[in-house]
Amino acid sequence: MYKAQTWLSLNFFAFFFTWGVFLPYWTAWLISSKGLTVESASTIIAAGLFIRSFSTFFVFPALSTKFPIGTLVKAFTVLSTLSLYLFIPFDSFRAMMIAMALFSFIYPLMLPLTESIGAIMMQSERIHYGKSRSWGSIGYAIALLIVGAVTAYFGENSIIYVMIFGCLLMLAAAFYYTPASLKTKANDHSVPFRSLFQSKRFVTAMIICIVIQGAHASYYSYGFIYLQDLGVNNTWSGVILNIAVVSEILFFAIADRLLKRTRISSMFFASAVASIIRWTLLFLFPSVTVYAATQILHSMTFALAHFAFIRLLYEEFDSREIPAAQGIYASLGMGLSTSLLTVAGGYLYKEEPGLAFLGMALVLIPAVLLSIYMKKKFEANPL
C-alpha cells in the first residue's frame, strides 16, 4: 500500500505542477509571447476547453476499455510532452489555434486519468485519496511560485520552459512504477453512458459540478491578468495565487477524516454558497486585499465540490464504470462549461473586469437549488 500511495502522490504532484503552469498562466503567455489580444487569447483558450470536453467525454472512456490504465499514463505523458512543442515555432492566431487544438486533445486526458486512478486505487489498494491528492495541490502551488519568480526576472516568455520542465517531470513519475491494479484492462466492453445516467443521484451531482467548476472560468483565465491590472508584480501574483492552493492542500489533508460522515449534498451546498460569496466579493471590492482574502475560499469553491464528487463515484459505481464517469465529469464539469463561461467572461472582462466575476456568481444559483433538491430526494436519512 505504501508504494502505491507514494506512486499516486508523485503522479498527482507532477500532473498538477503542469496544471499550475497551464491553467492560470497560459492566457498571459499567449498575450505576451505571441502578441495576441485578450479576446483572441480567450478564444483560443475556450477552443481548447471545448476540444478537451470532446476528448475527455469520448476518447478517454473508450481508451480506458481498450488499454490498461497504467499503459495510458505512460502514453498520455509522452504525447502531451511532444505536442507541447507545437506552441514554440509560430506566432499567428491560426497557428496557435491549431497548436491548442492538438495539445488540448491529448494533455487534458491526464486530468480524468489521474482522478480515475485515485478512485480505483481507493477500492483496490485502499489508499487515502485526500492524502495523495494534497500532493497534487502542492505541485500546483510550487508551479505558481516558480512561474511567478521566473517571469519576474525573465518575462512571460519563460512560461513555456517551466511547462516543458513539468512535462518531463510527468514522464519521470509515470515510468517510475505501475501498481498491479492498473496493469490490466478494466473490462473488454465500453460502459454505455446511459447506464451511468440511470443514476439520478449522479446526474444531479454532475449538473451541480458543471455549474460550480465552470464558474471558475474567469478566475482561471483572467485571474493573473486581473492581478496585473491591480498593479501586482509577477512574483507577488504567484504568492497571492498560492493562497488558494495552500487552502486546498490543507483541505485535502484532512478531508477524508473531517468529512467522513458528511452528506454529499451538504458539501455541494456549502461549495455553491461559498462560490457565490467569493465571486461577488471580487466584483464589489476590486482590491488586492480582497482578492487575497477570497483565495482562502478556494478550499470550498473547488476542493470541496471536487472531493464530494469523487466520493460519490466511489459510492455509486464499480471500478470499471469510474473512468467513464470521470470522463463525463472532466468533459462537462471541467471542460465544456468552463469553455462557454470563458468566452462569456472574456466579453465581460473587456467591458469591466469585475463583471467577469459577477457573471460567475449569478450562474451558481441553480447549484444551490439543486443541492437542496439532492438532499431531500436522495439523502434524507443520512447525517
Counted up, domains total: 1
CATH homology superfamily name: MFS general substrate transporter like domains
Number of extended strands: 0
For the record, give the distance between the C-alpha atoms at the N and C termini, rounded to a whole number.
Answer: 30 Å
Transmembrane segments: 7-28, 40-60, 72-90, 96-114, 135-154, 160-182, 202-222, 234-255, 267-285, 291-314, 326-349, 355-374
InterPro entries: HcaT-like, MFS_assoc_dom, MFS_trans_sf
Protein name: MFS transporter
GO molecular function: lactose binding; lactose:proton symporter activity
Report on the structure:
The protein has 383 residues and is mainly alpha-helical. It has a single domain (2-378), classed as MFS general substrate transporter like domains (Growth Hormone, Chain: A). Helices cover 81% and strands 0% of the residues. The radius of gyration is 19 Å and the shape is globular. The protein starts with a helix and ends in a 5-residue tail after the last helix. 56% of the residues are buried. The mean pLDDT is 84.
Considering the chains and any ligands shown, give keywords for the structure:
383 residues; mainly alpha; Growth Hormone, Chain: A; 17 helices; MFS_trans_sf; transport; cell membrane; cell inner membrane; HcaT-like
SSE layout and pairing:
Blueprint: H1 2-34, H2 38-66, H3 69-84, H4 93-106, H5 110-124, H6 129-154, H7 159-176, H8 193-196, H9 200-214, H10 217-229, H11 234-258, H12 264-284, H13 288-294, H14 298-316, H15 322-351, H16 353-362, H17 365-378
Summarize the structure.
It is found in: Cell inner membrane. By secondary structure, the chain is mainly α.
